[in-house]
Amino acid sequence: MNPFFKIKQELTLLDIAATCNIHIPDLKNAHVIGFGTLKDASESEVSFFHNPKYCNDLKNTRALACFVSPDYLELTPKTTIPLITSTPYRALAEILHFSYSPVYERFEGQFTKEGYFLGKDTVIGKNVKIGPYSVIGPGVHIGDNTTIGAHVTIEHAFIGQNCCIHSGAIIGDESLSFDYDSKGKIYVPQLGCVRIGNNVNIGQQTIIDRGSLQDTVIEDHTSLGGLIHVAHNVQIGKNATIISQTGIAGSTIIENDVIIGGQVGIAGHLVIGKRSQIAAQSGVAHDVLSYTQMAGSPAVEASIFKRQIYNLARLRKNRV
């Protein structure tokens, strides 16, 4: 996890099974230190499998135990204890609600004479400039020479050096992470944080949500325009450029040197390959290969999109 959340008390596999009403014959009890994704969970952590796109991650996970449905039981490694349930995402949500609490009160701190709010245990680097009415939440780290505009809110975040965060941006707040199953809507607590590298530019009123079981990450030298929404767990690589009013859904990976035009919508759990380009107002519903140019909604390769537009124009001309 991160310094912003803590486990309320010692937790064991038996505690998890009892809380989630999961019966496991001959379950050996073991101490649990936390929860993580299939890729990141250690031999003392619990994970979950909910999306078939991550079958390979399930096969290779090192997790102590994993919430998994009976349909995918055979993919679970022998070293990982299966916590079998028909609703693994709901089980995860229940145990996270039960297990974790915030380290700080949300607005634990005080206003400065300069007119911004500074939270408890915040670390501010050298030559940092913070505009009026901004809120720097408890435990936040801000690197040297970073400039923060007015009315900015930063919580649950680590900001690098030489960054510029323009007025009205919101970083590290809770995202709307939910799903549905037969019992209704499931809300999963957001226990990650936001990690922003060096020399990153974030535009006006852009929102970057903190992660759930992993962090939302924006790497060095990336630029985001205004009114962009970056959802939980998104990973944006180095030197990316994303133009205003774009929305990136949760757990999508954007690799290095990607250029994304304005008003683009990108679905969740995708990979946008390095040096790819996405034209304005595109709707991306599938992975994008590296070095590819995409356009349209649903987005296709730009050359195909141009032919589609040409053929549509010919159809209109023939009808006249």
Tally of contiguous helical segments: 4
Strand tally: 38
Describe the strand arrangement of the main beta sheet, using strand numbers: 9-10-13-16-19-24-27-30-33-36
Number of domains: 2
Tell me the radius of gyration: 22 Å
Can you tell me the CATH superfamily of the largest domain? Answer: Hexapeptide repeat proteins
SS content category? alpha/beta
- CATH fold label of the largest domain: UDP N-Acetylglucosamine Acyltransferase, domain 1
Q: Which segments are poorly predicted (pLDDT under 50) over 5 or more consecutive residues? A: none
Form type: flat
How far from one another are the termini? Answer: 63 Å
Q: At CATH's second level, what is the architecture of the largest domain?
A: 3 Solenoid
The helicity comes to 10-25%
Describe the sheet with the most strands: 10 strands, mixed
CATH top level assignment of the largest domain: Mainly Beta
Mean pLDDT: 93
Beta-strand portion reads: 25-35%
Describe this structure in words.
It is a single chain. The chain has 320 residues and is an alpha/beta fold. It has two domains: 5-102, Udp-n-acetylmuramoylalanyl-d-glutamate--2,6- Diaminopimelate Ligase, Chain: A, domain 1, CATH 3.40.1390.10; 109-303, Hexapeptide repeat proteins (UDP N-Acetylglucosamine Acyltransferase, domain 1, 3 Solenoid). The chain is built from four helices and 38 strands. It has a ten-stranded mixed β-sheet with strand order 9-10-13-16-19-24-27-30-33-36, with no helix packed on it. Strands 12-15-18-23-26-29-32-35-37-38 form a ten-stranded mixed β-sheet. An eight-stranded parallel β-sheet has the order 11-14-17-22-25-28-31-34, with no helix packed on it. Strand 9 (109-111) and strand 10 form a beta hairpin. The longest helix has 18 residues, at 302-319. The chain is flat, with a radius of gyration of 22 Å. The chain starts with a strand and ends with a helix. The model has no long low-confidence stretch (mean pLDDT 93).
